[in-house]
Amino acid sequence: MLNPISMKCNFFLLFILLNLFVTRAQNFFLHQGAFNGQYYEYGYNSLPKIEIKYAPEDIDWNRWSLLEDGEVYRLYFMPLGKSNKLYQFGFNPSSNAYEYGYMSAPVIPILDLPSNADVSNFSILFDGYDYRLYFLDKYDTQIILQCAYDENTGSTGAYRYGYKSISKIVISNAPIDTDWNRWSMLHDGKDYRLYFMSKNSNDLLYQFAYNGSTYDYGFNSMARISITGYPSSTSKSKFSILHDGVNYRLYKLQKNN
Predict the structure, then answer these.
(1) Coil, strand or helix at 112
(2) CB 148 within 8 A of CB 135
C-alpha cells in the first residue's frame, strides 16, 4: 500500500514540476505597427507579431523598451526586483525573432542612478551618436532623468546617469489626463520625441518634442495620435516606440500560455 504522506509529496512534486513546465512554456510576443501618416496602424509596413526568445528566467516582462541604431533593432528588459542592469536582445532576421544576446552584450550595467528615479518604467533610444536611457522622477513625474551609454566603463560598457547628458529635463504643457505611467521616447534624426498615453484611452497618444529646454507638448509634433488595430490581448499597461530611419514604429507586448 502506498504511504499517504509519500503520495502527497509525489503529487506536490508533480504540481511544482507542472508549474515550472507551464512557466517555461509561456511564449512572449511583441505586436508591431507603424505610423501611416495619420495614425499608428497595427501591421502597417510591419511584421505584426514577433517572438521573444531565450529570455533569462528572472526577466521583468513589465519593464521593457526598444530602439533601432542603424544596424539592429534592440529590445531591453530589466530583471525582476532590480534596476542596476539591462538585458539586451537583438532582432535576428533569420528567425524573425528577438533573441537574447543576438549581436548584443547580453547584460549592460546601470550606474549612479539617483534614488528619486522611478524604476517602474524606462525608455531607451539612439540619437545617431549616443544610446540614451530615461526614467521619470518618482517625486515629480514632469521631470525626466537622463543617462547615456559609456563604452569605456567595465568590460561591456554601462549606462551612467548624467553622462554626456542634461541630467534633468522638464516636461511642459502636458494635458490634464496624461497617464504618467505609460510613456516612451524616440529620436527620429531631427527631434527627441516623448509620448504618453491618455488616462482615458488605450488608443490615444500625446506627443511632445524637445524644444531646447523642455519636452513641450505639441512642439514640432502632431499633438494627438490615434492607435488602431492592435489585438485586445496585448498589454494595456505599457508600450514602446522607435524610429528606424524610415518608419515610426509602436510595440505592445503579449504573453501566450
Answers:
(1) coil
(2) no
At 256, is the pLDDT very low, low, confident or very high (cuts 50, 70, 90)? low
> What is the extent of the structural domain holding 250?
4-256
The DSSP output letter for 128 is S
Dump pLDDT digits (tens) for 53-87: 999 999 999 999 999 999 999 999 999 999 999 99
Count up the domains in the chain and report the number. Answer: 1
Report residue 63 as a C-alpha cell: 519593464
Q: Is 243:186 a contact under the CB 8 Å cutoff?
A: yes
**Beta 143-150 vs 168-172: how paired, if at all?**
antiparallel
Residues in Cβ contact with 224 at an 8 Å cutoff, skipping those fewer than 6 apart: 204, 205, 206, 207
DSSP 20: H
Q: Are 65 and 76 in contact (CB under 8 A)?
A: yes
Burial class (CB in 10 A: 0-12, 13-18, 19+), 145: buried
As given in the structure block, the three cell numbers for residue 237 are 499597461
- Whether residue 212 contacts residue 256, with contact meaning beta carbons closer than 8 Å, is answered with no
d(CA 123, CA 208): 14
Q: What is the pTM of this model?
A: 0.89
What is the Cα–Cα distance from 237 to 224, expressed in whole angstroms? Answer: 19
* CA distance readout (Å), 237 to 63, 94, 203: 10, 30, 12
pLDDT tens digit sequence for 129-168: 999 999 999 999 999 999 999 999 999 999 999 999 999 9
CA–CA distance, 183 with 205 (Å, rounded to integer)? 9
CB neighbourhood size of 154 (10 A): 12
Give yes or no for a contact between 119 and 139, defined as CB atoms under 8 angstroms apart.
Answer: no
